[in-house]
Amino acid sequence: GLRPRPGQEVSVKVLGALEDGGLVERDPRLTFVPGFGDVVQALELGVPTMQPGEVAFFLAAFPYGYGRPGREPDVPPEAPLLFEVTLLEVRDGLDPQPLPPTARLRLGAQRRERGNFHFARGDFSAALHSYRLALRALDGPTAAPPGPQEEEELREQRVKCFNNCAAAELKLQRVEEALVACEAALSISPDNGRALLRRGQLLAQQGRDAEAALVLRRALELDPASEAVHAELSRLVKRRSAPA
């Protein structure tokens, strides 16, 4: 068979183990596009060399696995990994066909978690890219209408992704883009405390104090015990009361 071409989506079965045999990865169907940063480098580089149906073993030094920090709690720092990979399927394009809602949720969660991995290591551009891919997966066509629980889970996942996009944009010092992401989260879940707090902080950064105060007071109504909201409101009040 033909090897995956750039831009094609692949599905693989993956087992990953430490040198002592401890299993740290088990996924019967991991779906990703090589080059998009969804998975560790060992898979990014190794899977495109495979043919459909092939089983391969990749021994990955730590830069091609979870890097110098490792992955808490199961992958120690600088740990080499052994991957057993079966290439199940190769498809054209990104999410070219409708998927069941459960598959969309799984793909979205996988990409969001990869974004969190990049974020924790300070690669905020890569994190943002993964969060956007997660949203694309969650918003794609479904093979059947989602049930009430699946619809709620899709909604919650979208809100998480938009909040994470806002955090990454803020780390990249793009305040306007972060504000847009917050507002997208609030358009789905108007009472989301995390989005309200961050929107209030961003409005305050732009000098829009009256708007920021309204947003933060709403966040405080929803969570009166929130120390972060109390602190942000206190800073805002002190700034507004300071002499010019």
Q: Give the beta-strand count.
A: 4
> What is the terminal separation in angstroms?
72 Å
Strand content: 5-15%
CATH architecture of the largest domain: Alpha Horseshoe
As for the CATH topology of the largest domain, it is: Serine Threonine Protein Phosphatase 5, Tetratricopeptide repeat
Strand order of the largest sheet: 2-1-4-3
The fourth-level CATH homologous superfamily of the largest domain is: Tetratricopeptide repeat domain
User: What are the secondary-structure elements, in order, as H or E?
Assistant: EEHEEHHHHHHH
Number of helices: 8
Low-confidence stretches: none
State the share of residues found in helices, binned by percent: 40-55%
Report the average pLDDT across residues. Answer: 90
The class by helix and strand makeup works out as alpha+beta
What report would you give on this structure?
The protein is built from eight helices and four strands, in the order E-E-H-E-E-H-H-H-H-H-H-H. The protein is elongated, with a radius of gyration of 21 Å. The protein is of the alpha+beta class and about 240 residues long. Strand 1 and strand 2 form a beta hairpin. About 50% of the residues lie in helices and about 15% in strands. A four-stranded antiparallel beta sheet has the order 2-1-4-3. It has helices at about 40-45, 100-120, 125-140, 150-170, 175-190, 195-205, 210-220, 225-240, and strands at about 10-15, 25-30, 55-60, 80-90. The longest helix is centred in the middle third of the chain and has 24 residues, at about 150-170. The protein folds into three domains: about 10-90, Roll (Chitinase A, domain 3), CATH 3.10.50; about 95-190, Tetratricopeptide repeat domain (Serine Threonine Protein Phosphatase 5, Tetratricopeptide repeat), CATH 1.25.40; about 190-244, Alpha Horseshoe (Serine Threonine Protein Phosphatase 5, Tetratricopeptide repeat). Its EC number is 5.2.1.8. Pfam families: FKBP_C, TPR_19. It comes from Probosciger aterrimus (Palm cockatoo).
